[in-house]
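Re: your question from the hallway

Yes, I did run it. Sequences:
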Amino acid sequence: MKSKSYSLFLKDYHSELRTRYAINSLAMFIIVAISIIMFAVGQEKVSESLTGGLFWVVIFFTAMSGLSRAFVSEEERGTALTLQLLSAPSTVFSGKLIFNIILVFCMNTIIALLYSALFETFIIRNFSLFILSFVLGNLGLAISSTIIAAIIAKAGAKGTLYPVLSFPILLPLILTSVQLTLFALDGTSIEQAKYELAIVVSYDVIMLTVSYLLFDFIWKD
Amino acid sequence: MSNYTVEAKEVTKTFGRRLIFEGISFYYKEKGIFGVSGPNGSGKSTLVKIIAGLLSPSKGKIIHKNQSKKIVAEKLHNHIGFVSPYLVLYEEFSARENLNYFARIRGVKFEKERVEQLLEHFLLFNRKDDLLKTYSSGMKQRMKFIFALMHNPELLILDEPTSNLDIEGKNSTYEIIKEEGKKNIVIVASNEKTDLDLCSDVIHLDKYKN
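Structure:
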């Protein structure tokens, strides 16, 4: 199944390079969102806690603008049926998940780099904790966004439904990730952040398991 | 000749309160060409989607067996070739790229010889490197046949197979249907008399609405 999912990821990757379905909207959203925050802040000095919170606000809304494409583009173009005839539901989900994980990591790395360059209070004092929370948070975001994208792809008002449905599901992840980012900014040790890390790990495992269990039903009818 | 069987047991489909059809049963074994007919909206496409495992029946079941062993739903796609007007291939890729990805995603070897033979048969060999978005509707329809046949399926399901095709395209389609019907099961859903004339047995869906 691994190589089939990887082939599906490659298909999506090449398709994305040709159609620019998600990349353009993600890139534009990152630039616009950070610019608006910069204009709103002006000459004010932003506190560390606010920077950490705003960092995840940008990540959340950027994810909402681009991650649904994995399934929405298949439904809109009518190619979902082709995929159903080509592979098992678990293969489709794995392929789309790989694509979204890579997209989330690229997108959030750019956001983190821009934040570090543009906000002087965004100074990471515990780099290992930041990387750990960044990786776990991104995985959770990619998993949840992928399964929610599969659900909303068959609905009418996709654009509105995606953030509405995502918000309650992503809330525990976002809140914990904001807390972990703040810990990384103020230099808290990994040992002291172990409960928050455990929450994010549990969230990722639960969402991954539930997604694989549910995907068959979502994908078929 | 394949050892494939497909059996429908009292299959019923409703969408909400609307009954599409009820109590359809059949048993197709090894080879042959079978038809599904009925007026527009009678549920031809719904029935073939249920047979292909793309939709669940409201009641009853479809059992696919190969070498007397029941095929699980997750592996059914490897045994089925499906052509329909609502099937869309990836227009941003060329025919060759599409077929290459299909083989890889399916987890089978890309059989270059077989694919080239099909491209030749459906008169697309010279356009194999062109993007699908530059194809005419008839060429896209022929491409769907290659998609359906490239993995040598034991069950070929054709929903309105000759739509969008010119005389030449129709003739090569009939040739393929006859050829496949000699070794595999072919199910044709259509209203066209010429399509249904190829079938040894036809299910008339208007008889299954109470």
